[in-house]
Amino acid sequence: MSSLPPKPVRRAITLPALTFGILIAIVVSPVVVPVLILIDLVTGPRRMRRTRFWLLVIGSALTEFGGACLGNIALVRYGWRRGNPGWFEGNERAQFWWVTHHLDNIQRFAGPKIEVENPEECSIGNAIVLSHHTSHIDSLLPAYLFGPHGGLHVQYTLKDTLQWLPAMDLVVGNLPNVWIRRRPEPGSPMFAEIERLGASTDHGNVTVIFPEGTFFTPERLDAGATRVAEKRPDLEPMIRGFKHCLPIRPAGVMALLRGAPDADLVIIGHAGLEDFVFLADIASNIPAERPWKIHLWRFARSTVPDDEDELLTWLTRRWVEMDDWIDVQMNS
User: Fold this and answer.
1) Is cis: bond before 287, omega within 30 of 0?
2) What is the pLDDT of residues 125-156, one digit of tens each?
3) Packed helices 49-78 and 85-105: angle between N→C axes, nearest 10 degrees
4) pTM for the full model?
5) Window from 144-148, 188-192, 243-247 with minimum mean pLDDT
6) How far apart are CA 151 and CA 127, in angstroms?
7) Which one of 107, 198, 211, 269 has the minimum C-beta count within 10 Å?
8) Residue 157: C-alpha distances to residues 42, 180, 190, 196, 256 (Å)
9) Cα separation of 330 and 20, whole Å?
């Protein structure tokens, strides 16, 4: 069971809070912005870092509000016909608008450029996508890469706590996605839901999961390596060599692969978002000094092991390769 309050209760909290916050920010901006500009100029402007951060926060809040409004419009227009193509397309358009504008705001005010090394892979569907996870922001990347740019439908497994974001709750929650808990109970029906999501994977879409489960820290790496060593001590040396990644949690990946026995497997690696984990990190790293580099590795399903132990070994080796790629990008 989810630990979140019911939708009506949750939305009665998040939507008024977001609206009130935006109104306050707009009212105080005529005073705050000149003060921030002055401080930036006096303290040695790092390309107007404080001013940029304030504008990014407001832009992100307005995008969240816009996404929630589009979700409500789709609800009013199609809500009585849920499940029909108009309902799906309306919410998907809202999701892509929301994703694109969030990333546009980040690039405009925080400065990073998004560089995809092999964008041609983003237009090929029928794939289970395993994405590296190092920031809340990188949850937007698969939809951005495969959706508006790749022309594919994108479906997700996502942490249920993200439903505290109004647009995620109102738009993403109305699409064929699965909300997951980080530490599900043994025998949780959640895995059956994930398997059913995998079964809907076809040539017109991709299904995304973040198998690391959370962001990298040395402490989490140590805990993850210790956890893996309890059942697979042979993998521990490889995992302890990671510099940027965490070991995967294979249960969700296995559920998706069981549901989609013919789908390829794609791994998304990225470098540069490590500076944009929390608000304090974003504020101190504006403007970004390096681009966000992205690489996709696609593996034909015939090359992916079916046995769980063999799959975990195979994926750990792929994670070693991705960790090495990230290290090269970070030090180049």
Assistant:
1) yes
2) 999 999 999 988 999 999 999 998 788 999 99
3) 170
4) 0.92
5) 188-192
6) 14
7) 107
8) 46, 6, 10, 11, 10
9) 40
